[in-house]
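Render HNH endonuclease in 3D.
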Amino acid sequence: MNKNTLKKLILAINGSSLENPTRHELILDVQKETQFSKRYIESTLNTLQRHHALEWIGDEVDLFPCAVIFARAKHNSIPEILAFWEMFKFEKELLAECDIKIKDKKIYSYIDRIKKEDPHKIISDTLSILYTDSIIHKDSSIPYKNQDREMVNLECKDFLLKIMPKRGIPTNRDISKDLQVFFKDTLMHEFDRTCPICGIHMPHMLIASHIKPFRDCAHIFEAADHNNGLLLCRNHDFLFDQGYITFGPNGKLIMSRDLKHPEHFALHDLDPKLMTKSRQLYMEYHRKHIFRDPL
């Protein structure tokens, strides 16, 4: 399992998965994209599944964020190595096959940080922050805004500001395209490519909606953090973005008095398990500043 072929294969799987193919269709699509043998593709799918870097939801494939980060990260970068660790826990055979060499001792301190985080997180804050830092444009001439705004008080805030001390967000949102891809990919995994309000399961009709709007973010990580997002269909994205609906700390639906005929919109509570500690903080901002009837 050569590292470069593994990365190429993961990217092909990720691209094909948005079409909701069956396992057989996925293998054919990936084979066409990569020219790899069916046997190699099957073997790699099984390896990723065995290490919980990939899962099957019914007959559809779903990659974990660490696998996608590994595939997209720069070669031999810290995020690439940490993503490999989150997938395979440095299994010796795979380390050798992928020619992963750990030259920076900081890797081990980052792994120690990850081990102290909640193991049920879909991606560690440590890896998410380091990957975000690796893909932002650091040209000092790029203008930023919101540098004096208050950040959400995340548990990882101290580590975040140590790694990424610059506050605010770029005035030109196009500069953050790679971050937006990362943001949506992660939400696609977390929400099983399904709107959590109405249950529609059509990936191309779903929108990665910020809870604290991108325009209000006080740090670029807030714009990239999947906890600051919901994966919504177009109808519910509009209602949420415009403040007609919001949610309580336990996911309880709250409707604005301005919303007419709510029975037309298939509105429901969010599953409480989606309300992570960080998402609750972002949702508190939404209730105070975006919702039409501030609480």
